[in-house]
Design brief:
358 residues; Purple Acid Phosphatase, chain A, domain 2; 2 domains; 15 strands; 19% helix; DNA binding; DNA_pol_D_N; DNA_pol_a/d/e_bsu; DNA replication
Length: 358
């Protein structure tokens, strides 16, 4: 049966209608600067936690004029603030809107995949973490595999079909603060990041001689913190930037390689959504962002991003063929029907183990 689409302010009584709006998730543990300031008034401070969701969280639907609390057949634990949604239901006597069913924005199917005359491969990797004390042997071994300097003839032939390497962020490791070190550099001192960037340039200069490389910025890389992150500056790579096969790209990353569209991030959106919901598996989180038609609906509420006024670059209007996130705790992939594939990328050691196993 047909139902009427109405705005929240026009809903009257227990009329069964469809309302379109944006979800706001009320969370007591949501970090708030006002609650931090309340410590000055001898109030109880917020507990330190990496997960901000709990059982008594609830959802509200808002439009340009008002909000209404949602109840019924909608789970607050698998939703986050910022999701655009259409809900079917009616208003209860308590004033809450009872949800019978709901749906998200429509996303177009991807373009038809081209027919290739030969096999071609794209390598996804993240989390080099240069600057850590665990040695660079795994990374050097990975580069030697890609460039064909190690491995048997079958392995070398397989890597000869590699057409692109996508580095999904966090090439530089997180620098732990030193309590005995000054906040400001003196004339004769330098940051550990400088040496890490020089080391990264050395590794990239080996890689770009044999394959095209796209390097994305990540959470710990020397780039702007707000999403979308702009490319790392080429001046940081004096050796690698001499090659046309070396490309510094944005985060999120969106490119078409031989007719196959790749879309992905360095993992900040997946990490934040997992912290504000009960969706713990990165692949499930990726699936949810596809369902929501938005890469990062939680931005800028809980994920730092540039405040766009007239357009949102994170909106999905068409499914990609390959959808990925970097810097996950483990490797994993999932085939979602005939339309798109999803992949979560671990650290360089996890990628190396995966390559050696396959």
């Amino acid at each position: 049966p047909s139902v009427t689409v109405k705005r929240l302010c026009d809903v009257t009584g227990s009329e069964r209608v469809v309302v379109i709006g944006t979800i706001f998730k009320h969370m007591e543990l949501h970090p708030s600067i006002l609650k931090e300031i309340s410590e000055e008034h001898n109030l109880i401070p917020q507990p330190v936690t990496e997960e901000y969701t709990q059982e008594d969280d609830f959802l509200m639907l808002e439009d340009d004029l008002q909000r209404v609390v949602l109840c019924g057949s909608i789970d607050p634990q698998i939703h986050v603030t910022g999701v655009n949604i259409a809900v079917l239901g009616y208003t209860e006597e308590s004033g809450k809107f009872f949800v019978e069913d709901y749906c998200y924005s429509y996303v177009d199917e991807p373009d038809i995949l081209p027919s290739l005359s030969m096999d071609k491969y794209v390598l996804l990797i993240s989390g080099f973490g240069l600057g850590k004390a665990d040695g660079m042997f795994p990374l050097q071994l990975l580069i030697d595999l890609i460039t064909g300097q190690v491995g048997d003839s079958q392995t070398q032939y397989k890597f000869s079909q590699l057409v692109r390497v996508i580095i999904a962020g966090n090439s530089i490791g997180k620098e732990d603060p030193d309590p005995f070190k000054s906040r400001f550099l003196t004339r004769k001192s330098k940051s550990a990041t400088v040496d890490s960037i020089r080391m990264l340039d050395d590794f990239m200069s080996q890689l770009v001689t044999s394959v095209a490389v796209d390097i994305m910025p990540g959470e710990f890389d020397p780039a702007n913190h707000l999403l979308p992150q702009q490319p790392l500056h080429p001046c940081m790579f004096p050796k690698s930037s001499k090659y046309s096969t070396f490309n510094v790209v944005t985060n999120p990353y969106d490119a078409t390689i031989d007719g196959v569209r790749f879309l992905g991030t360095s993992g900040q959106n997946v990490k934040t959504i997992s912290a504000y919901s009960k969706i713990s598996d990165p692949l499930d989180t990726l699936q949810k962002t596809l369902d929501w038609a938005h890469i990062a609906p939680i931005a800028p509420d809980s994920l730092n991003s540039y405040p766009y006024k007239d357009e949102d670059p994170f909106i999905l209007s068409q499914y990609p063929h390959v959808y990925f996130c970097g810097n996950a705790s483990t490797m994993g992939y999932r085939f979602s029907g005939q339309f798109y594939n999803m992949a979560q990328i671990g650290s360089r050691e996890a990628v190396l183990k995966f390559i050696l196993r396959t």
